[in-house]
Structure formats: structure tokens, C-alpha cells
Design goal:
Two copies of one chain form a homodimer. With 246 residues, chain A is an alpha+beta fold. Chain A has eight helices and eleven strands. Chain A binds a DNA duplex (30 and 30 nucleotides) through helix 7.
DNA sequence: CGATACGTTGACGGAAATCAACCCCGGTGG
DNA sequence: CCACCGGGGTTGATTTCCGTCAACGTATCG
């Protein structure tokens, strides 16, 4: 666990993909105190019911947010990739209504809510950018909901793959149409509301159709267009255009 | 369509349930120019793909947000009740990734984005309150996702009923355990990812179990505890405690 | 008083869950 | 070094929840 703000550039790079920063704003971001820490895989970062006083910037690795049913079933709400602040919401919603967990070993930076709030009060443009990120979060929830509620297993899986490829590409973690795939079939199951058995079978169909190769930790879309079509993927909901020029 | 700001109190009441307003903040909210308008039922307010320059305060009536699958299936993401700003997200996400529609005849107030943004820049506490509202929005999406992905039809329906009763109660639109129920079975179907036939049957089971009475436009929970248990309803995710006192 | 939208019911079919093995592989320890 | 273990993946058989199709009832309204 090293100290203070050595990794702010990860956050700054992210912010600059949203708004153009003034020198002052960039400096203010730099000044944000941050506790960097390395975490093992499958470790809870915050748990449902807790009242954290800090949020967590994901520097390296993959995390997910989830919650359990009374009957012991898990629903994963989102996967998170480097540069994101998966629990930004705790800034304004005191009690966690779900948990945040590492999927792989992770490097994260903890930022106290107080300085983050001060920053937002002082620099409304930064506040807007953070706010905007949480809105995109919501947009992704909606898209997943649409998939789970209204699409069949093959389309859900294909859609998830398209989304991961697209988001990872935006931060330089995917080239061509391939990226890391740190998810077990169990995790995909809980994200898409299916069973592992069914995931497994449909995965084989998708492979057999020549749309992807999926090995241990690597996904490649051999037929991107086909995958997009199967998943009915339209990246609009990711709102990736820096400011969607008026 | 009357002019300017005669209905701001609806917004102010809402805000005061979140933060305590200073006189200045209250006055600033009052000054927000608002176009009040009456709309018929089943009318789109904004559509997927549009780039609105205003958001809409729901003063009276019920609305929903939805999006269509390529195969023509509809997923409803949320229902909205008086006092809410269903398309607040358009403030920072230029292009709508879903549509907003009236369910009943509605009275709405349109607020231009520009003055709203100015307000947020000038009064960070108000910005936070608005931001917070959009985060609760996201929390509701997550809870629905959990239901659709991981709960059976009876639990999903019960949960929706509990949620509506709870939210309506918070704005004084539910007494005891009864409230208006403006939703057709078709709308419930699209919200919960089911079919009308199945909705209908499960509804009858829930009635037969003595949990509710549901007539034309009125829902009453005859056995609130039972309904809560069936739906696994825990209101935490609604974050209704004004500020969840530290 | 028909139109039309919504609700109800029955019969049938299918997507996906569940149950139950079994395989493979990397890690660990005797 | 090999046995053991456990997590993840794979496969087959069976079940079930829910969808689809189709018909019919019922209420509201111009």
C-alpha cells in the first residue's frame, strides 16, 4: 500500500476523455489524496449495508457489483474496467445497496468522499463529468435489463461480449476485436440471469457459428458484425462520444 | 399550457425531502422558468435518439421509460410518479438512449437544461440533490434487474407492488396500504419481462393467497407483510431516509 | 351498439433450470 | 513424484416455468 497521489493520471486520463480540463482543474485532480492498494481476486471491496466514507478508483484489474437474493441467488449488475469508479454512487447514497468485488487481482485507489465533494463543489465542470459517469452507469443497467428481460440467452451473451470489447477498446485495452476475458461461466451466469449449464451450451453454439474464439482468458470476435447482429448491439447507450457534439 | 413558474412548489417539496433548503436556494428554484403542459395518456414525451434541450418535471400522473428490442419487444425500465424528473439524465447525456411516455393523462413542467445547469453550478447542494435523485434511479434499475434476472414471476409482481406503494406513500399518494394502480397487465408484462397470460395467472394466485385486492385502478395490500415476504422487498435501495443520518 | 382495449381461460410447446455425472487442470502436500 | 483436491468446464436426462396461440368475456366510449 503506497501513499498519496501517484496514480491520479489514471483518473485524469478518464476525465479528459469526457471534458477538456483546464490547468487548474487538472491540478485539483492531481491534488486528490488517494490510497493505492493491491487486492487479491474474489475479494469484497465494499459490502451491501456498509456506509463507506470513500470511493474506489479501479487502476488495474476487473471488478463487479452484485447483490444476493434471499434464496441465495446472485445478480451481477455490472463489470468494471480500469479507469472507472465503481462505487461513485456511495458519494451521495450513504448506505450501499449492493456489494463490490474484485474478479481478478486489482490495483485500486481509495479516495475519501470529503475531498471529492469539495472538488465537485469548487469545480462544477468536474462535478458534471463525475455525474455524467454515474448516468452512463445507469444507461448500462438499463441495457442489461433489456437483455435479461427481453432477449434470449445467445443474444444476451453476444451483447455482453460486444459491450466489453467496446468499453475496453475505449481505454486501450482491446485491439482489433479481441480483449481479456476474465469472467468464469459462473460470473456470466449471474450477470445474465441464466444457469452455467445453459451458458456453456450457448457458448458452444456461438463458437460453432464462427463468431468468436474464447479461451482461458482471451476473447476474440472472429466475426464482429455477426456478433453485433446476434446481440443487437448498438453502442449508443455507452455515450462514448466525448460530449456528443451538439 | 400556462406560462413560467407556477408549479415550482412540486419540485421544491421534492427537494426539501432530500436536503434542507436555504431561502436563497428556495428562491433560486422558484425562479426556474418552467413550461407547464397537459398531456394525454400513452404519449411519448421524448424518444430514443432525440437530443432534448429540456427536462420534464412530472407534476401529476404516471409515466414510464422504455426501449424496444429489434424483434419488437418492449422493456419498461421504470415507472415515474409525481415530483420526479424522469429524464433528468438528458441534462448530461446528450442523446436519449430510451423513450419516455405517459401512462395516464399527465401534467408536466418542462425546464430548459441551461437554467438548470446554471442553478447546479451556482448551488452545489442543489446539484448534489439532483445528482442523488439520478443515483436512486440507478438503484431502482438494479433492483429491477435483480428481480427480472433472479426471481420468479410471483416475486417480481409482488416486489413491483411493494415498490409502488412505498414510493407513492413517500409523496402522500398512498394511504394505509393502498394506492392508485394505473398499469395495465401489458405494462406490467413489459416491466417484468413476462407475458400477459402469465401475469394474469400469477396475479390471480396472489389474489387467491389473500395478499392483495386489485381492481380497475386501485391496488390494496390486504397482507402487507405477506406481500413483502413474497416479493423479498427491502426498501433500502430506495434510499428514502432524507440523508440517511450518519 | 358496434369498436376497441383490456382481461381471462385452455391447450400446447419451448427455452432454460435442475439434477447428476464426469473431465480437465493447476495447486498442494504427503 | 504422485495422490489428492477443488474449481471450472462439459455433457446427458429430466423437469418446469413461462411463452405462444387462440378463443372468448367484459367494459368503456364515441
Amino acid at each position: 500500500m503506497d501513499a498519496l497521489h501517484p496514480h491520479s493520471h489514471s483518473l485524469i486520463r478518464k476525465m479528459e476523455s469526457i471534458v477538456t480540463l483546464s490547468d487548474e482543474e487538472r491540478a485539483a485532480l492531481m491534488r486528490l489524496p488517494m490510497q493505492v492498494q493491491n487486492l487479491r481476486a474474489d475479494q469484497d471491496i465494499v459490502r451491501e449495508g456498509e456506509r463507506p466514507n470513500r470511493s474506489c478508483l479501479l487502476i488495474e484489474g476487473y471488478t463487479c457489483r452484485y447483490s444476493m437474493t434471499e434464496k441465495g441467488k446472485r445478480q451481477i449488475f455490472s463489470f468494471h474496467i480500469p479507469g472507472e469508479i465503481p462505487d461513485a454512487q456511495s458519494l451521495h447514497l450513504g448506505t450501499m445497496d449492493h456489494s463490490l468485488q474484485t474478479i481478478t487481482p486489482c490495483r485500486v485507489g481509495f479516495i475519501q468522499h470529503e475531498p471529492l465533494n469539495d472538488l465537485c463543489d469548487r469545480y462544477p465542470r468536474l462535478a458534471r463529468a463525475f455525474w455524467r459517469e454515474t448516468l452512463i452507469d445507469g444507461a448500462i443497467f438499463r441495457e442489461w435489463m433489456k437483455g435479461i428481460g427481453r432477449r434470449q440467452a445467445d443474444a444476451r451473451i453476444a451483447h455482453l461480449m460486444c459491450e466489453m470489447l467496446t468499453r475496453l477498446k475505449a481505454v486501450g485495452l482491446a485491439q482489433d476485436h479481441s480483449c481479456a476475458w476474465p469472467l468464469t461461466q459462473t460470473e456470466v451466469r449471474d450477470a445474465l440471469g441464466l444457469s452455467t449449464v445453459h451458458i456453456n451450451r450457448v457458448l458452444q453454439e456461438i463458437r460453432a457459428a464462427g463468431l468468436i474464439t474464447l479461451t482461458k482468458n482471451k476473447l476474440m470476435a472472429k466475426d464482429w458484425e455477426g456478433l453485433v447482429a446476434l446481440g443487437e448491439f448498438d453502442p449508443l447507450y455507452l455515450h462514448q462520444q466525448p460530449r456528443e457534439a451538439a
